[in-house]
Write a structure and sequence with these properties.
By secondary structure, the chain is of the alpha/beta class. 31% of the residues lie in helices and 12% in strands.
């Protein structure tokens, strides 16, 4: 078995699993940062038996000082997952519109909450469609699940922990936003541009392409090139903890299941004007 077998699943393999006697529970988490809502995509066509789960309202808490996509209330998350049919110890597969970010955040959230058997459909809905597999517009009414959550199964950074990691002699805090946002040249969403002092920029397209990951060896090489040593602490952040969850998934694939997510990310960091902000001066004369 591959080291990715409990993290990713290809479309054809998922189709075979769905034909089995006790198939995995499917969660459609299609989402866009600036809209329109993913539910319209779900209504237009989804994997058979998939239930739509909204990233913004079910998998995250309400936006505020803790960030635009903070941790959900565990009781509310458990209720949402039970309504979607998630059962204790039963496999779950999550998928999105193809970029892999929302699916990775859903994967991370379920694992953080203590539900380990969850995988991401590699390539998302487009990979399923490209394989010529069936699509449905029927909305299932699943039997209520019985999952019981125990949060804390994956490491989390708050602002203090992120600052400490970024400033450490050993260890790396990865900023996976686009380089202009990291450098402080452009900030389209949050009120302040720049980055956490000491953080290292590794934009997401450098380790994932259209929602698909390279081999574990290729991912390890790319993270090592960014300064991630095999054993020193590593964490990741982005604008609000969605793209960074995908970085944590990539780190898991590369053999670093200890990678921490700064859930609040930049939207939490700049909520406190007392926190320092670093920018990168323009290069050249």
């Amino acid at each position: 078995m591959s080291a990715t077998d409990d993290l990713l699943v290809e479309a054809e393999q998922l189709a075979a699993e769905l034909a089995a006697v006790d198939p995995p529970t499917l969660l459609d988490v299609r989402w866009r940062l600036t809209g329109p809502p993913g539910r319209a995509d779900y209504a237009a066509g989804h994997l058979p038996t998939a239930v739509f789960v909204d990233l913004d309202t079910a998998l995250c808490g309400p936006p505020g000082p803790a960030g635009r996509h903070p941790l959900p209330d565990p009781a509310a998350l458990q209720s949402a997952l039970r309504a979607a049919g998630v059962r204790a110890g039963h496999p779950v597969v999550v998928y999105d519109g193809g970029d892999g970010m929302a699916a990775a955040r859903a994967w991370w959230t379920l694992r953080w909450a203590g539900h380990r058997p969850v995988r991401v459909l590699h390539g998302g809905f487009p990979a399923w469609s490209a394989a010529g597999l069936p699509v449905s517009t029927d909305e299932p009414d699943p039997a209520s699940g019985d999952v019981t959550l125990t949060p804390g199964a994956l490491p989390v950074l708050d602002a203090v922990g992120a600052a400490r990691l970024a400033a450490a002699d050993e260890g790396v805090l990865l900023d996976v936003r686009a380089a202009p946002r990291y450098r402080g040249e452009h900030e389209p969403i949050d009120p302040v541009a720049g980055h956490v002092p000491g953080a290292v920029n590794l934009p997401a397209p450098e380790y994932v392409t259209e929602g698909r990951f390279g081999s574990a060896a290729a991912l390890r090489d790319r993270f090592i090139a960014a300064g991630v040593s095999p054993s020193a602490p590593v964490g990741a952040y982005c604008g609000s903890g969605v793209t960074a969850a995908q970085a944590v998934l990539a780190l898991h694939l590369a053999g670093r299941p200890d990678a921490a997510l700064y859930v609040g990310s930049w939207s939490n960091w700049v909520a406190d004007p007392q926190r320092p902000v670093a920018v990168t001066p323009p290069s050249g004369p």
